[in-house]
Amino acid sequence: MRPFELTAPETVEAAVAEPGTFLAGGTTLVDLMKLDVLAPDVVQDINRLPLRGIDTSAGLRVGALERMADVAEHPGVPPVISRALLLSASQQLRNMASIGGNLMQRTRCSYFRDTAMPCNRREPGSGCPAIEGANRMHAILGTSEHCAATHPSDLAVALVALDAEVLLTGPDGDRAVALTDFYRQPGRTPEVEHDLREGELIGEVVVPELGFAANSTYVKVRDRQSYEFALTSAAVALDVADGRVVDARVAAGGVATVPWRLRAVEDALRGGPATTEAFEAAAERAADGAKPLAHNGFKAPLLERTIVRALLELTEGSSR
C-alpha cells in the first residue's frame, strides 16, 4: 500500500468540497489499495457524516452509511433486498460494509485486480485479456470488445428490480438518478463505470412504494454456498391474483456488466398464468442479446433456470 493522506470531514459540504477518495466501511477500497489497484493521494473517512437512517413509512429510504447487516435485519425492508444482502459476503463484512460502498464496489474480475495483467478498466487502452482468456465468471450481457467484467453487487440487482434511485450530493448540489441509469455499460470506455461526477457521493438510496414488493425474493447461484460471487442471480417481485400474474419486476446479476433489468421477461409474465410452463416461457427472454465467450455460455440457460426457481418460490408451488 502506498502512502496517502487521511482526512475525516464532519459535514457533507466539507467532504465534497475537497478532492479525495471516500472511505466508509473500507471492505473494498482497502483491499484494492493493498493490491496497488488503487493508489489515492487523499482518503476521506466519511463515517462522521449524517448519512444514516432507515425509513419504511412510504417505500424505503436508506442512508448511504447504513451497514449492510442493519438494513438486512430491518423488519420493513422488502424480502428481495434483505435476502440479497444476507447472501452477500460474510457476516463480519456485512457488519462493516456500507450501503453506498456496496453500490460503488469495483468488479471482482481477476484481471482488474492483478496489476501484472492489462485491463481496460484499470488502464484504459491496455486491453481485455478476458475476451480471449479465462472467462468463465465473466458477463454475457452488456459487454463490449473492451470489457466483459461482471458487476459484483447483489444489492444493486435487487434495487434495480424495484426501480430504486440514488440521491447524490456534490459541489454543484444534489440530484437524483435512477439506479438503472447510474451504472454504465463498458462500450469503448470501460473505465467509466457510473454516473458519479467529480466530488459527488451517494447520500441516500430511495425505493418507491410498491405494494407487491412484500412478495419478493433473491435467488443466487454460485460455486459454493457462502462467500462467493454469483454465477447467476435473480431478483424478483411478483403480484399474483386468481392464478394470474398482475405485475412483475425482474433483474439479474452475475451475467452482465451492470445490474441487468429484464423488462422483456416482465412483459412476458404480465397477464399470463402463474404456472411453471408460463414461467419457463417468460424466462427464455432473459438472455436476449447475450454474447457468450468461450467459457461462459452455460450462464444463459442457468439464468433462465434461476429466474424460474425464484418465480416458483414466490408462488409456493401453486403453479405446479
UniProtKB/TrEMBL annotation:
InterPro entries: CO_DH_flav_C, CO_DH_flav_C_dom_sf, Diverse_Substr_Oxidored, FAD-bd_PCMH, FAD-bd_PCMH-like_sf, FAD-bd_PCMH_sub1, FAD-bd_PCMH_sub2, Mopterin_DH_FAD-bd. It comes from the Bacteria. Signal peptide: none annotated. Transmembrane segments: none annotated. Keywords: Oxidoreductase. The keyword Transmembrane does not apply. Residues 1-212 form the FAD-binding PCMH-type domain. This is FAD binding domain-containing protein. It comes from Saccharopolyspora griseoalba.
